[in-house]
Design brief:
Blueprint (H helix, E strand, L loop, with lengths): L1 H11 L7 E2 L8 E2 H15 L1 H9 L3 H17 L8 H14 L2 H6 L4 H25 L25 H18 L2 H14 L2 H18 L5 H13 L14 H19 L10 H5 L8 H24 L5 H13 L9 H12 L9
Length: 360
């Protein structure tokens, strides 16, 4: 059952926001991926053999510590939430507990057993992105349902070019690190079509990191290639494709300042995990996962979160390293780590010995 749920999750993941449904009484959507990952967690808990392996994993303890701090921060702030706010925040807390099950489940199986599904999942993600860019380039109508409006940008099934760009940048760098340079080229083209400057920067820093590890100066050609593609691709009128746009920069700075201000006011345990929407009475986000943790779970939560990430990055292969570093660096400019499809990808790649993919 665990294997079946993991494979189903892999094939649902690329559909992103397309498989969302609303629940009466909830102010946020539930996704089919949430449901499958929840069942995946339950299957691990009920399988004694699998649970023994989960308990012996060195990541379980730091994960529990951070989740407990997040829970405590929310419980301590329940009285300050607006009506219905506790349900909204509890849902996100449940996600914090269940999504790491992707890591524990993937580690139960031989890489060959899930390799085909992982590759197929990513290919489907790319196909959906290409389909959107070619046939639905004008996504400005998304503003009517609470998303940012985008015009002639590859937003994919995530409805967001930044999160889509983070995945594309990370996977392109994985292929480059494995020596599959030709495979990385179409991914660089797709990355260029997102017009996501944060993702461009992550890709550039990833190349610099690989340059330091591999000492191959020919890697610079990938950066040159990205610049050329960005220069050549069509750029119809619109702020979204203007690489010198400033509105999003100032918007991020404002959100960072708000995050710091909230942290200073409640530095120990914060305002409660994912309660920011309720504190302001409207949709509000901090475009930085680390400031988000600091503001909502305080200094204690931030320390345990950094400890968890430190444990995650120990003893993993270069391809895993480069992918996870991209996501974590991207989280400086967006709340990427806690975006459920990014979070899913983080835990999945952490469990995969990507060196096994080099032969294919």
């Amino acid at each position: 059952m665990t294997y079946l749920l993991l494979i189903l999750s892999l094939f649902v993941w690329p559909f992103g926001q397309l498989l969302a449904f609303s629940v009466p009484g909830l102010s946020t959507n539930i996704y089919l991926l949430d449901f499958l990952v929840g069942l995946l967690t339950l299957s691990l808990l009920l399988n004694k053999k699998a649970w023994k392996k989960v308990v012996s994993d060195p990541l379980l303890r730091p994960l529990i510590y951070f989740n407990l701090i997040a829970t405590l921060s929310l419980v301590m702030n329940l009285k300050s939430l607006v009506i219905g706010g506790s349900t909204y925040s509890m849902l996100y807390l449940v996600r914090l507990f269940v999504y790491p099950s992707v890591y524990f489940a993937a580690k139960l199986f031989q890489p060959k057993k899930i390799k085909g599904s992982v590759v197929s999942s990513f290919l489907l993600f790319c196909v959906l992105g290409i389909f959107q860019y070619l046939f639905f380039p004008d996504m400005r109508y998304l503003k009517l349902i609470g998303f940012d409006d985008h015009y002639f940008r590859l937003v994919g099934s995530f409805y967001d070019p930044n999160f889509t760009g983070a995945i594309l940048a990370g996977v392109a760098l994985v292929f480059i690190s494995l020596g599959h340079w030709v495979v990385s080229l179409p991914l660089i083209v797709l990355l260029a079509l997102t017009f996501s400057r944060a993702s461009y920067l992550c890709f550039a820093l990833g190349i610099v990191y690989l340059l330091g590890r591999k000492k191959k100066f020919s890697l610079i050609l990938f950066l040159v290639g990205l610049v050329i593609v960005v220069w050549l691709i069509p750029k119809p009128f619109g702020e979204g494709v203007n690489l010198f746009r400033t509105f999003s920069v100032f918007s991020r700075i404002d959100s960072w300042e708000s995050g710091v201000s909230l942290f200073v006011r409640k530095p120990l345990l914060g305002w409660g995990y994912n309660t920011l929407r309720d504190l302001t009475g409207s949709r509000f986000q901090i475009d930085n996962s680390y400031l988000f943790v600091a503001a909502t779970t305080g200094l204690l939560g931030l320390l345990f979160f950094i400890n968890l990430l430190n444990k995650c990055l120990r003893g993993i292969s270069l391809p895993q390293n480069i992918f996870l570093y991209v996501l974590l660096f991207h989280s400086l400019f967006n709340n990427s780590f806690f975006y459920i499809w990014i979070n899913f990808a983080f835990w999945l790649v952490l469990a995969l010995p990507l060196r096994e993919y080099k032969r294919d």
